[in-house]
Amino acid sequence: MICCLNPNCENPQNPDGTNFCLSCGAKLIPLLRNRYRIVGLLGRGGFARTYVAEDIDKLNEQCVVKQLVLSQFYGSQGTGAHKKATELFEREAKRLKELGEHLQIPNLYAYFKEGEYLYLVQQFIEGQNLLQELKQYGVFDEAKIRDFLHDLLSVLVAVHEQEIIHRDLKPENIVRRQNDNKLVLIDFGVSKQRTEATNTAIGTIIGSLGYAPIEQMQLGKVFPSSDLYSLGITCFHLLTNISPSSFWMKQGYSWTSSWRQYLKQPISHQLELIIDKLIRENHEQRYQSAQAVLQDLNKLPRLRNTLPPTVISHSELLETQPQVEQKAVGSGYLRLFSNNQLLSGAIITGSGSSLLAIALISFLGTTWISSGLWLLILAGLVFIQSRSLVEKASLIIIAIITNLLLVLSFKNLLTPNLIKFGINGLLLVMLLVVLAGFLTVIIVGVWEIINKFISKYF
């Protein structure tokens, strides 16, 4: 694709090989300065257009071309606005040249005039700006804010050492580089050298509403603490997903004293104090250097979101591990032998259900009616107990297995006339009930062995 460089073009994209723009009819420039192939529009500003381009001298490496647009917005070259826009554009090129050696600031590749426009070519940073990241992933938590501050403050230290004030620090001007996750500070279009005289006309706004401090907006004066104010406001935006410009339009600077009430999630008191000092209205009461903020940030206690309340040493952990493992095995299945109450319940259920079965067989015989009635009574007696559903089901299954074994093993002794045998019949009933209890213990033991085997190998 080839992109039209007419700033008024509504649809600048054109297929390769096209000589004139299909949208506005302007002549297309295949290579800007015989080197840069413009392939797409990145953004539109007040007096500039930004394009993504390919540098054919660097094996089509991507770069950013910024185009200064004057006549369409500021009339003839003699106007004050025209001169100011040109001055700011040249200033951005100078700042990038001075700071371009820093790994987290875009390098300047070229600055030139072609036709009626000025152009600035700089390094392309692939990634999302923090406003885009905020919209995609939601508000930052404390850990992410700390990482953000650590990363960006190191950049501001380098910028301020060159006596440069950025003057437009906000989420849109901070890009998270895709290949290493580092934050890159971009758009030095309104940056200022501290030694430069202040000649901002009254009514001229330099910076972004809500992010710029009072001394910058009202007096045109800036200090390192001015960028730090914008940094603190950026933290607020990232923590709340609320644009500070809406508060500034209604309340001016007074809203910064109550910023905590808008937090989506709590942060540590120590971090609150750092943000408080960053966004104080009086610039003399703020941090005076990025290095001072870093020092306080490094003093913050480590976050322990993932640590348990009690810290256990490695040796203690090794000593307690067999017990934990044993409990884990039982918790996945039926913890029968490790739970005496459940084992005793199984014996009582097995013995009691066998007594019930003998009574029903004595009166009704071994019929489907007696079997169904036995199961119904058994289920009722088990389910009225205050046990978990798993335990209740286990007791019923154990009782069924116990009585099946008992009936199949002593089928000839279980007759409807058993109770009529007097003392002998009563002794036989007691013997069968006790036998049912022993069968229950055996069944529970086998069940536990099966559970352990399954948990170990499956």
Automatic annotation (TrEMBL):
The lineage of its organism: Bacteria, Bacillati, Cyanobacteriota, Cyanophyceae, Nostocales. It comes from Nostoc paludosum FACHB-159. SUPFAM superfamilies: Protein kinase-like (PK-like). InterPro entries: Kinase-like_dom_sf (IPR011009), Prot_kinase_dom (IPR000719), Protein_kinase_ATP_BS (IPR017441). Gene3D superfamilies: Phosphorylase Kinase, domain 1 (3.30.200.20), Transferase(Phosphotransferase) domain 1 (1.10.510.10). It comes from the Bacteria. NCBIfam families: 4Cys_prefix_kin. The chain crosses the membrane at residues 355-383, 395-414, 426-450. Pfam families: Pkinase. It catalyses: L-threonyl-[protein] + ATP = O-phospho-L-threonyl-[protein] + ADP + H(+); L-seryl-[protein] + ATP = O-phospho-L-seryl-[protein] + ADP + H(+). The keyword Nucleotide-binding applies. It is an enzyme of class 2 (transferase). This is non-specific serine/threonine protein kinase. Its EC number is 2.7.11.1. ATP binds at residue 66. Keywords: ATP-binding, Kinase, Membrane, Nucleotide-binding, Serine/threonine-protein kinase, Transferase, Transmembrane, Transmembrane helix.
